[in-house]
Amino acid sequence: MSPNPPDYSIKDLETIVTVDGTVKNIEVTRLTAPGENYVSLVLRVDIDVEKDGKKKTVKTIGKRLPLGNNEMRSKMAAHAMKNEIKFYREIVPLLTEFASTYEVDASEFFAKYYGSRFSLDDSSEDADRDSILLLENIIPLGYKNEDRHIGFDLDTSKAILKRLALFHSIPIALRSKDAENFKILKDFLVSCRPFGPPGGGPPGDGPPGGPHKGPSENGPEFPSGGPPNGPPRGGPPGGFNFPDGKHPHQVLLKTLKDIPELSPYIDRLSPLMGKMGPPGAGKPGTEPWGTFAHNDFWVNNMMIKSEPGKEISVKLVDFQICGYRSFATDLVFFLLTSLKNDVFLNNFDELLRFYYGEFTKNLKRFELDLELSYDEYLKEVEEAARDSEIPHSIFFAIPILADKNPAVDIAVEDVDMFSELTRMVENLNQRQKDKMVLLIKEASKRNWI
Predict the structure, then answer these.
(1) Where are the domains of the chain?
(2) To the nearest 10°, the Cα dihedral for 44, 323, 333, 33?
């Protein structure tokens, strides 16, 4: 840890914030604890505003790039920041306007947007260290994150899946009802494709947006090139590697082999783990079930408000690595990573059935001529699990269940995020080991591995 306190100040913030009145003062402090965010620094930003002699404080949160100087982490964070700014500027209004024609208030899914910038250079279309995204701080309204070490109870899980099913249904309806705006949405989602660190293989040789293989024979496909204003043409050479040319699945498999309870599953896990890449790097969505995938739908990325006698309210947050994929990707990842253990063991099928009921109900709500039988639905879920979400869930169980308040503050310090992740993978705590066993046994029972 540096002996000097981090500088959280934000230059010229008053020029981008949209408030009713004159900005008189801005106070910026740290919001989230060390270890809770990897590719952004989340700040509490309280803005004192005056109008007609009356004063009030507008409570917001500011997301900015991490303060450290690791080059690859900074590039990944800048790409993620650009994605999220465009989401709130362009995509939220598009989805909200369309959904309103069916009397759905999609603005309730998200925190209120207060302003953003990519850079102090107004002509820049890429996020840099002066980029900032301002959103309403919904904690004072009663919203909170649940404990990532514990996960969600059954009632809260159903409230989240109800929200997720409606969120997934809107883009599917948009495709059918408004081709022009659907193209805007899909182009955005394609541009959000994951941007990983350099790997050991050659750069991609396909056309913009085409695939190339990762550093191992069984490695995942990664984008080459891409749409205008995306990451540099050619994509990351080789794909997603830890330091010293190690592919994550090799490091993680070695660790899993040391857990005795997992020995019966290792041979079946190996080919699936070979598909592991950055979140969202799996198979693109195909019609009719391709939609807006969050790609990081776990405990920390939804905020919950529970009041006696009222329906549980859910806000979705952190749209940094979204993509165009099957609805089943978010569903599987959530179920495998974010439930309380007793809910995971006793209510997994109930929650699968619950999401199906909500999703198919919404297809009718949007007057879509689409049918999805429960068997077809389960096949879509299994394909998502096998394609990407088993390795995604196994790997992300490690940061989700990592110790709180770690010695290294990855959002502030000059650290190599991938070296730190390597250290975590090679030194699992008991919570992480227990979750691996629980998750992998359940996946095996369902023939997902």
Answers:
(1) 13-197+240-445
(2) -20
For residue 153, CA distances in Å to 92, 162, 312, 338 come to 29, 14, 12, 9
SS3 state of residue 7: coil
Q: Is-above-0.85 flag for pTM?
A: yes
Phi, psi of 181 (to 5 degrees): -75, -30
Q: Give dist(CA 315, CA 328) in Å, integer.
A: 20
Confidence of residue 35 (pLDDT cuts 50, 70, 90): low
The DSSP secondary structure of 145-208, one letter per residue, reads: PPPTTT-B-HHHHHHHHHHHHHHHHHHHHHHHH-HHHHHHHHHHHHHT---PPP-SSPPP-SST
10 Å CB burial of residue 184 (0-12, 13-18, 19+) is: middle
**DSSP conformational letter for 94:** H
What's the rounded Cα separation, in Å, for the pair 233 and 207? 10
Q: Is 86 left (phi over 0), alpha (psi -120 to 50) or beta?
A: alpha
The pLDDT assigned to 328 comes to: 98
| Rg over CA atoms, the chain | 21
CA dist list (Å): 254 to 53, 189, 251, 259, 386: 65, 34, 5, 10, 20
Q: How far apart are CA 302 and CA 110, in angstroms?
A: 10
Beta-strand runs (E) in 16-78: 22-30, 41-51, 54-64
Q: What is the distance, to the nearest Å, from the Cα of residue 326 to the centroid of all Cα atoms in its chain?
A: 15
Residue type, 7: D
- At 205-216, the pLDDT tens digits run 333 333 333 333
What is the chain's length? 449
Residues sharing a CB contact under 8 Å with residue 294, sequence separation 6 or more, in sequence order: 301, 316, 318, 319, 322, 330
